[in-house]
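Page 37, continued from 36.
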């Protein structure tokens, strides 16, 4: 009697598992893409028009040979990106609009899941022209000063030690600088936020092509060396919207 009861129960479990793996119930929302991930990161923004937050992204080539920078470093669920490797991946892609009927204005239309790694080849990263420097980095504010728009943007000002060279950087333009590291740039106490200057060792390597409009080098964090409190905020003003983005 016991064995007779187990058979239909097991059949029911198998049927439920099979139905959960069947993509035919999502009204065509799920497709499969094959992409090649290039060995070095680029910069992009998940927001329309590139305004807002610019972060490192994976540079990818789709099956048609078109370049795309759709993928943030953690955007493909189940996949861990390592610089220096060229990957070929098969992705399971879910179209959120087809799945939910809702449009997400400031987010990707798609969800990406690793289906399998087809190949992984170490090819290294560009070393030509690389230089390792120490740089003082502090948070600054970029503000508009014209009559037809009003905006303010947090940026980083990097000054190379021992030279007059400076960089105006997006907050996460330094590859390897995490959100926790970024928080170091502002100490907080009962008076509020206190600006901080952080000394870092970084590598600066010219890129063969722009990795973002007007950005022709990759800056990678090697080591955080120390930090120093500042007495007042540093404010940089820009007249043109295009000057920074």
């Amino acid at each position: 009697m016991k064995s007779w009861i187990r058979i239909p129960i097991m059949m029911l479990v198998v049927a439920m598992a099979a139905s959960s793996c069947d993509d035919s119930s999502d009204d065509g929302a799920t497709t499969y893409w094959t992409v090649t991930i290039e060995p070095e990161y680029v910069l992009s923004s998940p927001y329309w028009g590139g305004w807002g937050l610019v972060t490192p992204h994976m540079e990818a080539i789709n099956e048609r040979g078109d370049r795309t920078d759709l993928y943030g470093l953690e955007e493909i669920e189940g996949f861990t990106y390592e610089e220096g490797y060229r990957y070929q991946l098969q992705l399971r892609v879910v179209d959120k609009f087809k799945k939910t009927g809702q449009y997400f204005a400031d987010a990707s239309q798609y969800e990406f899941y690793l289906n399998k790694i087809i190949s992984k080849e170490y090819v290294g990263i560009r070393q030509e022209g690389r230089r390792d420097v120490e740089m003082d980095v502090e948070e600054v504010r970029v503000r508009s000063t014209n009559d037809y728009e009003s905006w303010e943007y947090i940026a980083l000002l990097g000054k190379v030690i021992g030279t007059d060279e400076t960089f105006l950087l997006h907050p996460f333009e330094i590859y390897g600088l995490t959100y926790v590291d970024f928080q170091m740039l502002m100490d907080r106490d009962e008076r509020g936020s206190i600006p901080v200057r952080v000394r870092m060792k970084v590598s600066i390597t010219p890129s063969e092509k722009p990795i973002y409009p007007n950005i022709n080098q990759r800056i990678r964090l090697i080591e955080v060396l120390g930090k120093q409190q500042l007495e007042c905020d540093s404010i940089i003003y820009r007249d043109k919207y295009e000057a920074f983005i």
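The first helix runs from residue 2 to 20. Flag for discussion at group meeting. DSSP finds three helices and 13 strands in the chain.
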